[in-house]
Amino acid sequence: MLLVLVFSSLQCGGSFGWISEASAQSVVVPSVSCGSGAKMKVHFYNVGEGLAVLIALPDRRHILVDTGDFPRRQGCGSVCSEAHSHLIDQLERDLKGAPIDMLWITHLHSDHIGGASLVLRTFKVNAYVDNGQGKKQNTVRRIRTMARRRRVRVVTVDPGHRDLPIESSSALQIRAIVPPRWPKPCHINPNNCSIGLRVDYCNSSVLFIGDAEAEEEKLLDLLGSITLFQVGHHGSDTSSSESFLSKLMPKYAVISAGRAEEGLNRHYCHPHTSAVVRVNAALGGSFSVPMRVFDNRMRCNQAREEDWKSVLTSDRLWITSRDGDIVLTTTGDGVFQRE
């Protein structure tokens, strides 16, 4: 029996419908307009030294940006397996049986793609997106093959391909933020082949840039200022340059990073003092919340306890290593509040 899935598109001041065929029960998603009070929720999960963020759109669709690290990554110990289990548990709670409409992998480092296989096995995923690199990497090939076997649409986004497998409307714009060219061949530095994702809901916007560093940042057309910013590369000094932040003009920001003494962050020492200082300056607000940061003038592989220090940061800046899971909501009014 052929059934129909009906979505009412999100619009400012009105609505219209689009219909697609699906082998599932007919579902009508109510239309939402600017000023309606409908919420967009952004869930930054505490996955240690990695990134995993669920965007619950106001029309009940869901986008998952990255999936944290492999549960058994060498050198990570129990931290990675516990973070992996936590991610799956939280997704089950927050999705409540709904599909992941788009799984977006910013780039192919393990702390961003490592959980993709289990996500694909555990949840219904409608589309999988990555940057098309890593064709010779067994893990990446297996993930793409698994997606296709599960009838998940596999899409490449890169400088020559920006079309997304998810609908936008006048109130909800979902766009790829990709440079006109990669700064260098991607095998040299995969961080600088991160594919950014921008979501605008009326007057609120959020930008995810994975691990993009300054070399890629300067090539990006951001399509305007940003309300909420995922701080690049876990708060590394290599990212969040002053010129980039001056273009972003963010109101709020989140760093996803592991604790200093745990798992893989023993080798990376995120966040770095210099990056946090730059983000603080861009955000403003009340500098009243202490954050543990690494003095990146020192060598991380020889880090001492005294190389870590506590600095006061903006009350508009959160970090998963201190704050745990971070859920920020907006009604499209240009303001995000933590639940």
TrEMBL record:
Residues of the signal peptide: none
Top-level division of the source organism's lineage: Bacteria
Domain Metallo-beta-lactamase per the UniProt entry, residue ranges: 49-259
PANTHER family cross-referenced by the UniProt entry: DNA INTERNALIZATION/COMPETENCE PROTEIN COMEC/REC2, RECOMBINATION PROTEIN 2
Protein name from the UniProt record: Metallo-beta-lactamase domain-containing protein
Species of provenance: Pajaroellobacter abortibovis
